[in-house]
Amino acid sequence: MIHHIVMWKLKDFAEGRTKEENIELLIQGYEELKKHIPQIQNAYIKRNIEPKEGNFDTILFTKFENKEEMESYLSHPEHKKYSALCKKLREDRASVDFEE
């Protein structure tokens, strides 16, 4: 099992929306993304309930059966669209992938 974890710190204002609006957009967008990419298993995205200076705003947890499934997910056209949106909204990003 491969775990893919991503955290984003969003800009206060981006693409004509506030940080809070963009957090909701990312959450809803990922729920939609799950409908298009069958390799996604047990995935969820959450907002930070303690938004303090220096903390990230959202975290994404995704599980894949193997590295090939994760690579298929990362190269999927719908994921690339979602990733492009994230790049416009984020101030910072951190990611960790590990095998269980």
TrEMBL record:
Organism domain of life: Bacteria
Protein name as annotated: Dabb family protein
Coiled coil feature spans: none
Domain Stress-response A/B barrel: 2-98
Alphabetical list of PANTHER family matching this protein: BLL2683 PROTEIN, STRESS-RESPONSE A_B BARREL DOMAIN-CONTAINING PROTEIN
InterPro entries hit by this protein: Dabb, Dimeric_a/b-barrel
